[in-house]
Task: inverse folding
């Protein structure tokens, strides 16, 4: 199913005036589509003409495709970009149970349905990086590359730790009004620096009205099942890159340990940003992703691995 719609412009309040690059990104044309994966309807948003090489963007836990709204159009200048809502998130269907392999299959199916030419690149943030590694593990020969963004390898993801400790704001909570829900939007884990116009856009696209009030667009059960194991990390059949955030969840030692398990030639970039890099340093993130992709086209770029942007 496909519906061609323009991105709605951001209606920012006066104190949250957005720069031109941001409003231009939100105004970019987008195809809103769905595809069925193992009996669930998976929603995604695609940018750029079909039939070009491209990538699939995977959000973190309790997030959704629209966390990429201001980044995907800047990557779509000469590529086909698809950002999906994993099952249990955003506008996709919920499942009785969730696992990384099924989420990886959703990403691969979206790549095919979106009309990406050739082998896609999978890019995942936080828990979405776990999905990216699962895709590289199970579908590596079918990928042009796999990039993770500040994805720490714990027994549980950061979102799962908070959810299971019952400290996460809004998990299962019903708000009496739209404004109350918007005011309750908080990134998990918390982050000191957030661009206000990005926060406002993400808050608006993260809520919906339920029978009992306003709440978030995710199933709380997503935190119960999927786990990331060090055993998933191994030499993959595709190029791999790791982006970590200096004020995020992946320490330099953890980054080194991840790279040691993947392959010695994997690229690593450190961004001076918080864990939710699309909320505080979206332009730096976009530049880093472009640099990695260009590096894969130019083998000499590998000598610049472990650079800092």
Result:
């Amino acid at each position: 199913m496909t519906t061609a719609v323009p991105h709605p412009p951001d209606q920012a309040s006066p104190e949250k005036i957005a720069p031109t690059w941001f409003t231009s990104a939100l105004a970019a044309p987008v195809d809103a589509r769905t595809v069925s994966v193992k009996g669930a309807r998976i929603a995604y948003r695609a940018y750029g003409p079909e039939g070009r090489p491209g990538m699939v963007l995977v959000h973190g836990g309790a997030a959704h495709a629209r966390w990429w709204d201001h980044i995907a159009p800047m990557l779509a200048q000469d590529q086909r970009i698809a950002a999906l809502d994993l099952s249990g998130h955003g506008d996709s269907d919920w499942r009785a149970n969730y696992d990384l392999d099924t989420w990886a299959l959703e990403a691969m199916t979206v790549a095919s349905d979106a009309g990406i030419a050739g082998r896609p690149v999978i890019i995942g943030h936080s828990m979405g990086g776990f999905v990216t590694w699962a895709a590289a593990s199970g579908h590596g020969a079918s990928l042009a590359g796999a990039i993770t963004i500040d994805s720490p390898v714990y027994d549980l993801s950061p979102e799962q730790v908070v959810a299971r400790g019952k400290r996460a704001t809004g998990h299962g909570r019903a708000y009496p009004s739209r404004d109350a829900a918007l005011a309750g939007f908080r990134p998990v884990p918390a982050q000191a620096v957030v661009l206000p116009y990005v926060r406002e856009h993400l808050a608006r696209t993260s809520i919906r009205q339920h029978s009992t009030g306003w709440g978030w667009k995710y199933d709380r059960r997503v935190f119960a099942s999927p786990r990331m194991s060090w055993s998933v990390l191994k030499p993959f059949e595709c190029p791999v890159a790791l982006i970590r955030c200096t004020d995020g969840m992946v320490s330099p030692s953890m980054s080194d340990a991840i790279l040691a398990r993947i392959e010695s030639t994997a690229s690593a970039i450190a961004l001076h940003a918080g864990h939710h890099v699309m909320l505080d340093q979206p332009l730096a993130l976009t530049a880093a992703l472009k640099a990695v992709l260009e590096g894969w086209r130019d083998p000499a770029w590998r000598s610049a691995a472990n650079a800092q942007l």
About this structure: The first strand starts at residue 2 and ends at 6.
